[in-house]
Design a protein that fits this description.
Elements: E1 4-10, E2 19-23, E3 34-35, E4 39-41, E5 49-54, E6 58-63, E7 73-75, E8 79-86, E9 89-98, E10 105-109, E11 116-122, E12 125-133, E13 138-141, E14 146-152, H1 163-168, E15 171-174, E16 180-188, E17 195-202
Parallel strand pairs: 1-16, 8-10
Antiparallel strand pairs: 1-5, 2-4, 2-14, 3-12, 6-7, 6-11, 8-9, 10-13, 11-12, 14-15, 16-17
Length: 205
Amino acid sequence: MDNIRLNFINRSNDINNSSIVIFQRNVAQEFGEIAVAWKVFKNCGVMENHPFEYSLDFGVTVADTYGNFSPMFPAAAGNTYDFVESGFGSVLQLSARKAANPSEIEVRNLLRIGAIGVSCYRNMSLLAIRTKVAPGEKAYFEFELRIFIGLASEIEVGDILNSDIISTINTEINLLGITSADIVLTGGGAGPNSAPFNFVLENVV
């Protein structure tokens, strides 16, 4: 399946020039899930637009306790990836074992000593992280075909989103069955004529 082509359009009356922030939830059944700002659109003025793509492919990287980072490894749901010791140091590789859940990406820490951090990417942008994965443990990643979008300030791509910010980025957009669409922002303004911000899909294909 090809990438989903999306286009953000600002038809609002936002007087604060807010940034548009998009993230996804890691719905894998485990504790410690952290939300990350996947996309941030800055200075997108009224009637301006910002096209972007939603890839169905992933990449994963691993960081060890020495501060080393593995190269990004292409990843797909249903597969398991092992971080193992080799004669060339620690490496990330595809496992012969499939993930227990075909909708999840699993990354196993097979080192004898040392916890790892695992990062998952979409379109080369950080999407989710798992930290302190001990030897013998796994990081799990699963994402539904939906994004969360909202307005925020002072957020950069890859930033960790705290619960207060997540509570304001609460418009959920379901991408199931969509190949392309416009995401249109309306509302805003000042004084008694102001209206709540609202995101809607238009020109859905």
